[in-house]
Design brief:
single chain, mainly alpha, elongated
C-alpha cells in the first residue's frame, strides 16, 4: 500500500487533468492578454478624441493598475482560504485513517499511550503558542 493510496490520491489522474488545465489556462491567458491590450488601445484612441493623448494614456494605465491590484488581492484571499481548507481536510483524513490503529495500540500498551499522549499534547500546545 502506497502513501498515495492511503490518502485516496490517484496521481496519474491528477497529472492528466493538471496538464489539460495548464494548457487550457495558458491558451485562455494568452487570448485574454491580447484582448486586453487591444481593448486598452481602443479605449485610449477613443479617449484621445475628448482629452489630450497623454491624459488618455494615463487614464488607461490607472484603470489597468486598479484592475491588477484587485486581482492580486482576490488571488491572495483565495489562496489563503484554499490553504486553510486543504489543511483541515488533510487533518481530518489523517485522523480518520490513524485513529482506529492508535486507539487499538493505546488499549494494549497503556504506558506507551500515556507517553505519546503527553508528547502530542506538548507539541500541540507549543505549536498553538506561536
Amino acid at each position: 500500500m502506497t502513501l498515495a493510496r492511503l490518502f485516496g490520491l490517484d496521481f496519474d489522474l491528477v497529472r492528466r487533468r493538471g496538464m489539460v488545465v495548464t494548457i487550457a489556462a495558458a491558451v485562455a491567458g494568452l487570448a485574454l492578454v491580447v484582448a486586453v491590450i487591444f481593448m486598452a488601445m481602443a479605449v485610449q484612441i477613443a479617449l484621445a478624441h475628448h482629452v489630450s493623448p497623454e491624459a488618455a494614456a494615463l487614464i488607461v494605465a490607472a484603470v489597468a493598475a486598479a484592475v491588477a491590484i484587485g486581482a492580486v488581492v482576490t488571488l491572495s484571499v483565495m489562496v489563503r482560504r484554499t490553504r486553510r481548507e486543504i489543511g483541515s481536510a488533510v487533518a481530518a483524513s489523517t485522523l480518520v485513517s490513524l485513529a482506529p490503529t492508535a486507539f487499538s495500540l493505546a488499549r494494549r500498551h497503556t504506558k506507551l499511550a500515556a507517553l505519546v499522549t503527553a508528547a502530542g499534547v506538548g507539541f500541540w500546545m507549543a505549536r498553538r503558542g506561536k
